[in-house]
From TrEMBL:
Substrate binds at D166, H206, D214, K410, H415, T457, N496, A497, R529. This is Beta-amylase. The lineage of its organism: Eukaryota, Viridiplantae, Streptophyta, Embryophyta, Tracheophyta. It comes from Musa troglodytarum. The active site is at E298, E495. Keywords: Carbohydrate metabolism, Glycosidase, Hydrolase, Polysaccharide degradation.
């Protein structure tokens, strides 16, 4: 017969749990649903994932074969065969209905973790999990509602503090300016509140599609695209005239180019509408607002777009300063510097998206990047990005003042060619970081002026996993950013840049977030991303152990490691039904 969640939890904990139905029937004998945990079959341990990949140098100098994490999540056909011996109870739970309130209460009482009094209140680092990019449907409502409910309950029971969700400008204000549709987000926020999870809400003013890991396409609002069609210079533009429609060019931040409003006004109005609509949840369920500032929600230029194969790792990218608004600003800066000849565009010898530094005159070892013109141009280019961040943060802090939420900003972890003198990929993205100049301290100070959290990616990566010839140093980059945040007095939070489910990645995150981040623990860590692969048995076992270690902080990687791992193993058994339900529901869509 079908069993409710309370029975299943009691079964897996080794203790019969009397449901409301059984209690009303009377009697002290345990239900026939109480089954010994010995009946549970432990899933077979799978081998470590193959992390090797092959890359081709743009200069035609042959292939590099080295270790690199997978580029994006996938729907593995193996999931269909996961735990084929699902109990009748778990199969019954796949029905598109939400569990009873009593069952959810049982989950919180018997499994604990997350939320108030959980991770984040003690010595460790709270863990959040990114939700799928397409969590909310284009015209309202949740995608895969039953899967979402089961998945959130599983995350809660594993000790996760909360979830991160993109609040897409292109969905909420899709049809007409000033008209906001929050329907799907209402459902999600209420679901998170009821289950006891916190929410990091991302104000996503960018297009979804065209970046690493983008599994769907969500364009900018239709009325914004209409304006960009009428004036193509609202889009970022490279030296070849190629337009990028991921994000409105920061060159027109303060101009009324969007139906009479400036882009900054549009972003502020959107955030204000979000605040007013979800005011009752701010500071309690919704605890953080991450403000999108560019492609992929990151404070940067779209210098390495994957769409249509424009850029491939580890290319240096391209400067995005050729729309008329950016060129107008550059011309004014050159005139002010007394060098009008520098105001006609970016460097002409900086190569293309897939060149390497030494392929170009500008970025090579002794190139123009380190000369008078290079210093002028790179200072202007990076300052424009900083001023863009300043403008949006000023609006965000004004809108969310006294609401009890934190404000955060994400900065990209551009770790390739980091060991070179010029750091070319960082320069094209807008980070004026070279061997002789710290490009992250000005960003940290800008965030510090507004009390914002510095959120940084690539925390899971090790130097030795990367292609050696690409001069990658993610560990060195993370340490530099941590030092900048510490000097500026800014809280540092982290994310993994790519989906990873292996213990090596988890160990690197734990060490960096709890031990090595400049001698201070991170404020939070957000795990990329919830999906079918996370709920595969071995991946789930490793993830639960990872969350427990993050909760324990330094002790989780020290003498208490075995105790933490044993506790994690108990949690894996306890969350079995929820994980099975989530996996099946996600696969059935």
């Amino acid at each position: 017969m079908a069993l409710n969640l309370a029975h299943q939890i009691g079964t897996l904990r080794g203790t019969p749990v009397v449901s409301e139905t059984a209690a009303s029937a009377g009697g002290d004998q345990p239900s026939a649903a109480a089954v010994s945990t010995a009946a549970l079959r432990k899933p077979q341990t799978t081998g470590a994932p193959n992390l090797r990949c092959r890359i081709q140098r743009a200069s035609g100098q042959g292939e590099l074969d080295s270790v690199s994490p997978p580029m994006s999540p996938c729907r593995s056909p193996a999931l269909a065969a996961t735990r084929p011996d699902l109990s009748v109870a778990c199969q019954a739970l796949v029905a598109d209905v939400e569990p009873a309130t009593a069952d959810e209460k049982a989950v919180r009482e018997y499994l604990g973790g997350g939320g108030e009094g959980g991770v984040g209140k003690g010595k460790g680092v709270p863990v959040y999990v990114m939700l799928p990019l397409d969590t909310v449907r284009p015209r309202g409502g949740l995608n895969r509602r039953k899967a979402m409910n089961a998945s959130l309950m599983a995350l809660k029971s594993a000790g996760v503090e909360g979830v991160m969700v993109d609040v897409w400008w292109g969905l909420v204000e899709r049809e007409r300016p000033g008209e906001y549709e929050w329907g799907g987000y209402d459902d999600l926020m209420e679901m998170a509140r009821r289950i006891g999870l916190k929410v990091q809400a991302v104000m996503s003013f960018h297009q979804c599609g065209g970046n690493v890991g983008d599994s769907c396409t969500i364009p900018l609002p239709q009325w914004v695209l209409e304006e960009m069609d009428n004036d193509p210079d609202l889009a970022y533009t490279d030296q070849c005239g190629r337009r990028n429609y991921e994000y409105v060019s920061l060159g027109c931040d303060t101009l009324p180019v969007l139906k009479g409003r400036t882009p900054i006004q549009c972003y502020a109005d959107f955030m204000r509408a979000f605040r007013d609509h979800f005011r009752h949840l701010l500071g309690s369920t919704i605890v953080e607002i991450q403000v999108g500032m560019g492609p992929a929600g990151e404070l940067r230029y779209p210098s390495y777009p994957e769409l249509h194969g424009t850029w491939k790792f580890p290319g240096i990218g391209a400067f995005q300063c050729y729309d008329k608004y950016m060129l107008s600003s550059l011309k004014a800066a050159a005139l002010e510097a007394g060098k009008p000849e520098w105001g006609h565009g970016g460097p002409t010898d900086a190569g293309g998206y897939n060149n390497w530094p030494e392929d170009t005159t500008f970025f090579r070892h002794d190139g123009g990047w380190n000369g008078p013109y290079g210093e002028f141009f790179l200072s202007w280019y990076s300052q424009m990005l900083l001023e863009h961040g300043e403008r949006i943060l000023s609006s965000a802090t004004s809108v969310f003042d006294s609401t009890g939420v934190k404000i955060s900003v994400k900065v990209a972890g551009i770790h390739w060619h980091y060991s070179t003198r010029s750091h070319a990929p960082e320069l094209t993205a807008g980070y004026y970081n070279t061997r002789f100049r710290d490009g992250y301290l000005p960003i940290a100070r800008m965030l510090g002026r507004h009390g914002a959290v510095f959120n940084f990616t690539c925390v899971e990566m090790r130097d030795g996993e990367q292609p050696s010839e690409a001069c990658c140093r993610p560990e060195g980059l993370v340490k530099q950013v941590a030092a900048a945040a510490r000097e500026a007095g800014v809280a540092l939070a982290g994310e993994n840049a790519l989906p990873r489910y292996d213990e090596m990645a988890h160990e690197q995150i734990v060490n960096t977030a709890t031990v090595e981040a400049g001698g201070e623990k991170m404020a939070a860590f957000t795990y990329l991303r919830m999906g079918p692969e996370l709920f595969q048995p071995e991946n789930w076992r490793r993830f639960v152990a990872f969350v427990k270690k993050m909760a324990e902080g330094r002790e989780g990687v020290g003498p208490c490691r075995e105790l933490v791992e044993r506790e994690a193993e108990r949690s894996v058994h306890a969350t079995g039904p929820l994980v099975q339900e989530a996996a099946v529901a996600l696969m059935s869509g």
